[in-house]
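Lay summary. Proteins are chains of building blocks that fold into shapes, and those shapes determine what they do. In this project we predict the shape from the chain. Here is one chain we studied, written as its sequence of building blocks.
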Amino acid sequence: MRLLAVETATALVGAAVMGDDGAVAERSHLGGRAHAELLAPAIEEACASAGCALGDIDALAADVGPGLFTGLRVGVATAKALGQALGLDVLGVSSLDVLAAGAREEAGAARSARVLAVVDARRGEVFAAAYDFSTPGSGDDPDPADVCDDRAEALTPEELAAWSDDLAAAGPVLVVGDGAVRYRELLAPRPGLDLGLADRVAAPSPAVLARLAARRLAAGVAPAAPADVVPDYRRHADAAINWEERVPVRTAPSTAP
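And here is the predicted shape, written in a compact code that computers can read:
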């Protein structure tokens, strides 16, 4: 099976192709706001490095967020279009799960028994999820989704700090993601928080996404039809918010004579 993974949830834009032997060819770029311009070349480069064409791809995976609105829109739309063109379903994977899996790969099981993944949501907020890989009964190498405590809403840095204090009270926590990098000065001094890998695991990796997606497919997780793949925005786009703020308040017509 050749699996193509598409990653655009943060400022890093990339793709990875995983072959039957488990080898992964990865290409990524720091995109800023150029997700649309950089994703197609990254896919082409990853396929070329893996020695295959798009028509040789057997499975598709995409990071569905949470993350940057524009990045998610570009990545998910691209994965859906590829799925429709190739006749393949798409496995959506959380950016926070990919960060947690990346932390495990970088740090090893002992140091990353407990992970806090933090994505910079901009506008002074973050998206975050905590993972306890030492949960009894979870197995030797559990899937991040099975040991996840996910906050479904955006958090302020102060809310994140308070939550991290609660988590660290139960033992050391490895903190990763570009949200941890951005708010390092707030988080690093707090007892029990380990930000030593925050810079190295700042963005979800296309290669880690490919490996995690392959594990889930092998475990029987079913991908979705392209039309059913939906980004996890977790809040309205800035354009929608600005529009709502500008809508004039309508008052009831006066009934006075």
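What the prediction tells us: The chain has eight helices and ten strands.
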